[in-house]
Amino acid sequence: MTDERFSQTRQSLQANLSKIDSKTVAQVEKDLPDNLNAVAAQDAMAMGYKSMSPTIYNGCTLALYAVEVALGLAPMDIGPLFGFIGTFSGVGISYFLPSLFVIYGFKLFATDTFQRENSRYVKLAYLNFALGVFFFALFLANNVLLFIEFEHQVKPASYCNENHSTISEVSGDSAF
């Protein structure tokens, strides 16, 4: 079973690498170990960095840092910004990721009999994903409305007739 998965992984990598230019393919294949099962998680994470250009990596890191610092120093209300971040991360963590894990996990790892016996979980995952789309749209609309300033502000001390005096002015009561 392990050799079959190893062979499938290798074939999948080669199929995806056929869509990429030959220089990148050569670099990635050079970094791949002979046996993918023997690779530690730390070594697997390091393979991505080995094939990445240091100029691109450092440039992107500095650009992201500059954007972060600029947004931190900008004299603006960051509440709406956190609203957007919360919308994406909250709905993603609560609705999208669990649904996708169940749907793709069933397709990749479950046997046919297990899938038939537990198909209700996949249906619930699709329902959960649909609810996530609904709540995402709702929360995103709410965050967009926070950016719109309404011109209809009520002024409690103003009247239609500017010559109209208030009750305290007429009675001479200064208790208010």
Question: Which features characterize this protein?
Answer:
single chain; 176 residues; mainly alpha; 2 domains
Give an overview in words:
There is one protein chain. The relative contact order is 0.06. Helix 5 runs antiparallel to helix 7 (119-147). The protein is built from 8 helices and no strands. The chain has helices at 2-17, 22-31, 41-50, 54-73, 79-109, 112-117, 119-147, 167-171. The chain has 2 domains: 13-75, no CATH class; 76-149. With 176 residues, the chain is an all-alpha fold. Helices cover 72% and strands 0% of the residues.
Quick structural summary:
It contains 8 helices and no strands. With 176 residues, it is mainly α.
Q: What is the total domain count?
A: 2
Approximate shape = flat
Kindly estimate the percentage of residues that lie in beta strands according to DSSP.
Answer: under 5%
Succession of helices and strands: HHHHHHHH
Mean pLDDT, all residues: 76
Main beta-sheet annotation:
none
Number of beta-strand segments? 0
State the distance separating the first and last CA atoms: 85 Å
The tally of helices reads 8
What helical percentage do the residues reach? over 70%
Please give the oligomerization state of what you see: single chain
- Helix-and-strand structural type: mainly alpha
Low-confidence stretches: none
**What Rg, in angstroms, do the CA atoms define?**
29 Å
